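Convert to structure. Protein one:
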Amino acid sequence: MTANDPFARLPEVPSFTVTSSTVADGARWPSAQYSAIFGIPDGQDISPQLSWSGAPAGTLSYVVTVYDPDAPTESGFWHWVVADIPADITELPEGAGDEAGRGLPAGARQFRNDAGIACFIGAAPPAGHGEHRYFVTVSALDVDHLDIPDDASPAYLGFNLADHVLARAILVAVGSIPA
C-alpha cells in the first residue's frame, strides 16, 4: 500500500487498462494540465486524452475521476469527475473537460470539482510542497447511470459509486511547483 492510497479502504476489484496520449503512467503532467485558474504559469486546465480497454462484460457505464490525495487538506483534492459515460465509449479527447463539456459523449455528466466548478481543473500543488500524485481513474460500473443529483460533491458521488464498481483502471501522473 502506498501512503495516502485512495483505494486502500475500498473493496478490491479487477483492473483493466487506461492509457493517455497526454501523459504516461508515472510521468509528469505537461504544462497544459496545470491550472490557469489557480495562476500556474503556462497552465491551461486542459483535461488529458484518455483511452481504455479490457473492461469486464456487464459494464453499463463508466466514471472518470482525477484526484490528488497529496493536497494539503484533510480530504485531498478532486480535479475532475465525469459520470454516466455510456458503455460503448472507450475514449475521451484531450480538452473534453472544459466548462461546457463539449468533448464529452451524450449523456455524460460533469460534476463540480473541489474548486466548485464542473470541469477539469489542472494541477496546482503549493510551491515547494513536493511532488503530488494525480490518480486518473476509470471505473467500470454495473449501472447505466448513477442516481445522484447534478450538484453532488465528488465525495457523495464516490460513496454512491462504490457498490457499483466492476473494475478499475488507474493511471498516475505526477506534478510539483518549485519553491
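Protein two, convert as well:
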Amino acid sequence: MSAPLYNAEILRLAASIPHHERLENADATVEKRSAICGSRVTVDVALDQAGRVGEVGMLVRACALGQASSSLLAANVVGRTPEEVAAARDALTDWLAGNGETPDWPGIDIFTPALDYTARHPSIRLAFEAAAEAAATAQAAR
C-alpha cells in the first residue's frame, strides 16, 4: 500500500512556512504560478556579501503540496549559493519526472507519494523555481 498524498507531515509543513513575510529590501523578487491549479509563490531574495542567500521572504498562495514545498525551501535556502539553489531546482524537476534520484534537500522525500501525480508536480516545484530565478537575478545584478 502506498503512502497517502496528503499526510500529517505535509499538512504540518504547509501550516508552518518559515520566512513567510516579504522582504522590504530584496535584491530580486520572482513570482511563479501553476497554470494547472493556480497556485502562486512569490520569493524575495537578498544575497549576503559572500553572494549566498542571506535572507528570503515569501508569499505563498498554494495548495498544501505547494505550501509544504515552500516550507522546505524556506527552511533550508539561507546560506546557499545561487548555483546550489538552481541545482536543487533541477534535481527536484528531474526526480519528479522520474529521471533522477531523490534530491539532496532536507525533507524532500516527503513528496515521494506525489511522484505518480504529475498534475501536482508544478505546485511542488514553484518555490524552488522562484527561489532559483530570484537568486540568479540577484547575482547577475551585482
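The longest strand covers residues 53-61. The mean pLDDT is 96.
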